[in-house]
Amino acid sequence: MSENKDPQVAEHGTSVEGVKFVYDFTEGNKELKDLLGGKGANLAEMTNLGLPVPPGFTITTEACKVYLDSGEEPAALRDEVSAHLDALEQRMGKKLGQPDDPLLVSVRSGAKFSMPGMMDTVLNIGLSDKSVQGLAKQAGDERFAWDSYRRLIQMFGKTVLGVEGELFEDALEAAKTAKKVTVDTELEAADLKKLVTKFKRIVKAEAGRDFPQDPREQMDLAIHAVFDSWNTDRAKLYRRQERIPGDLGTAVNVCSMVFGNLGPDSGTGVAFTRDPASGHQGVYGDYLQNAQGEDVVAGIRNTVPLAELETIDKKSYDQLMQIMETLENHYKDLCDIEFTIERGQLWMLQTRVGKRTAGAAFRIATQLVDQGLIDEAEALQRVTGAQLAQLMFPRFDEDAKVEKVGRGIAASPGAAVGKAVFDSYTAVKWSRSGEKVILVRRETNPDDLDGMIAAEGILTSRGGKTSHAAVVARGMGKTCVCGAEELEVDTKRRRMTVPGGHVVEEGDLISIDGSSGKVYLGEVPVVPSPVVEYFEGRMHAGANDADELVEAVHRIMAFADRKRRLRVRANADNAEDAMRARRFGAQGIGLCRTEHMFLGDRRELVERLILADTEAEREESLKALLPLQKKDFVELFSAMDGLPVTVRLLDPPLHEFLPDITELSVRVALAESRQEPHENELRLLQAVHRLHEQNPMLGLRGVRLGLVIPGLFTMQVRAIAEAAAERKAAKGDPRAEIMIPLVGTVQELEIVREEADQVVAEVEAATGTSLKLAIGTMIELPRAALTAGQIAEAAEFFSFGTNDLTQTVWGFSRDDVEASFFTAYLEKGIFGVSPFETIDKDGVGSLVKLAVEAGRATRPDLKLGVCGEHGGDPESVHFFHEVGLDYVSCSPFRIPVARLEAGRAASQSAGSDHR
């Protein structure tokens, strides 16, 4: 709770003038997600469509925000809830919790964005020691009434009163053991009565109060508990993981209860209009007879496939199929549906656009285009660059000789290998120590979220495609296999027994395949993804499942390439990387780092250059380096013929090319002690000491090198120009661009540019070739961004080096801070994501925008790009589109992601402009 109380807080709540806090399901629609949350908005939408939705009402997110900000509910809220409860009671012909024929309600959370299992729900509110008798009489089923009552006390105790959930679960297990049964449905009314008594004793002992018998008190406390659940640790963690804003709040849905635990003609289920794992059309979902909804999602009892409902209850099945078709056509997307059947009557409890795997997302998007439900622009909004990146991960080699020990439900695809761990704490601990782990549980619950995030994959022995583990894993893009019943998981002894009696102990290596559901002992070798093979030109669309996926990716990429304005280049330093980048769709090289060309055999030449005492020695070293550099550029220009290649002149501190100061000191000391010749080592040590810097990333590097070491940059410019001339003579089409790094003032650029122009003119005269070599600079210092208008006078292009710009804006040393305190900053919510991963729009982004505007004000035809790591980050690509850059540049394997996101950004902005 916030300690800063609103001045309008009254004795009975916060006063907010003229705000409506409660909406009946008949009053809303699916467009009101900000106000009613996703669940409430969609319940209203289904009500408007005339679908069978139990009556109820929604308390808005605005009420939640007032409650969380002030610690009090709005003053008007109680009266509004009372008015809507009265209307509900009149409609249902019964009152909340009345002794003879009680109205029961559920109180459920419902944020704007789906957060499965992260917030609280309480079912069967209104039951008490008196009304349970009336429910039994009206239902004609004493067992059902006492089962519903024990569920209420269990959920209320854990959710509202903070009682440890395992205390209830242990009592339930003890009751089943005493009865010698394995599932709760085999407990009789008398057993459940005893269990209710036990549960109430647990509440009294742990919460310090009796379980409330007043139905309105139950409802009010449950509403507050749902509000409070917005700020639980697991909800905060999930929001950080999914980048959901923390200030949205949750709505609360109060819905009249319908019962799936009334016997074999009742049940509950979750259905998908398409397979969320593959995207294929068909009948997908889970059904559980004689159960309430939480039983399905929790995975406590294994379900039957939804298709079996046709045999169990054909009337309800046919009606459900018709409703699913209606909803998919209405929402124009895969729908995730929760339903209950009460004695043959079908009720719809929820619908939402369903979470899906990466492969399913691409297949479904193209299917919906073919069905005429959406257009290409909308198809691009149905997939993401992060999903495409998942599809490019390697997969298991099915031909490898490995030991398969089990098979479950393929809930979320991927090839995950790691050490088996049996609780979330261990998963997090081992992961932080650098271990790859697989979280193994009977079933997961919301408290396992941190372990699920830390693990490479999740394996459960219970639950289906709609269990908590499956839904959350799909949302996170995490590999998951559920319901592997043949595996016996013993979390207390921290082991898993597989068919044949083999025992997997904690720490043993296992592999899980989320695409097939197979579980293996040991590490399974991996092979390239078919999507990568497609981008490499080694796979084409055909008839099998992998080919269907490739075809869907091919079509979506074609949509993106037609829509995008941003061009996509590669960061590549050699011909091999350049050729791969070109196959992946690169439209040039945005960053060639020449320092990578000076390593290996050339290090000795660089050392000689650094140690040169005379101009003649320096010229000799540069003369030796020139043909090597020229050869590099000839190969690069050949690989990218016809496309631009931006070559960055030497950037890193010179000491990086010299031996380690400690190792060299030891060598000199040993040589002196042995009275051995060491003149060269001593000269080298003196040079290392001379060039040593406390903070080399802010020292002698970039343009400063070119100004301090005569001839270094002109040698590189000459190599570029001569290579371009040679390619032209060979009928090639070289399009070289020369980039000066780390410029902070226009005077630096002017001096280097004057020398470069002179060298290019000399090469043109000597070869008789006209060379149009653009000269520009990297904008990677705050001063460069702030004086971009001046720098543009001497630059034909800017390329934003956002790695260094982020370091210098934040005052971070990337090599140090990510290991030292970034984890704490992420956990505390200071960062939603590392600023080195996604661009900091408010700080670094503001400087980029300022430099774009100032640069183009000086030079309207100024070409603008980015070559830092952000060039391949999906969210950052959208920002670069918005501020008007011409291209992004990234590593070869991120090129498809950047192409897709550039298309999505253009499509999204066009849609916004149209609206």
Automatic annotation (TrEMBL):
Keywords: ATP-binding, Kinase, Magnesium, Metal-binding, Nucleotide-binding, Pyruvate, Transferase. The keyword Magnesium applies. Belongs to the PEP-utilizing enzyme family. It is an enzyme of class 2 (transferase). InterPro entries: ATP_grasp_subdomain_1, PEP-util_enz_mobile_dom, PEP_util_AS, PEP_util_C, Phosphohistidine_dom_sf, PPDK_AMP/ATP-bd, Pyruvate_phosphate_dikinase, Pyrv/PenolPyrv_kinase-like_dom. The keyword Membrane does not apply. Its cofactor is Mg(2+). Residues 435-517 form the PEP-utilising enzyme mobile domain. This is Pyruvate, phosphate dikinase. It comes from Streptomyces plumbiresistens. The lineage of its organism: Bacteria, Bacillati, Actinomycetota, Actinomycetes, Kitasatosporales. Signal peptide: none annotated. It catalyses: pyruvate + phosphate + ATP = phosphoenolpyruvate + AMP + diphosphate + H(+). Residues 551-903 form the PEP-utilising enzyme C-terminal domain. Gene3D superfamilies: 1.20.80.30, ATP-grasp fold, A domain, ATP-grasp fold, B domain, Phosphoenolpyruvate-binding domains, Phosphohistidine domain, Pyruvate Phosphate Dikinase, domain 2. Its EC number is 2.7.9.1. Residues 74-302, 308-359 form the Pyruvate phosphate dikinase AMP/ATP-binding domain. SUPFAM superfamilies: Glutathione synthetase ATP-binding domain-like, Phosphoenolpyruvate/pyruvate domain, Phosphohistidine domain.
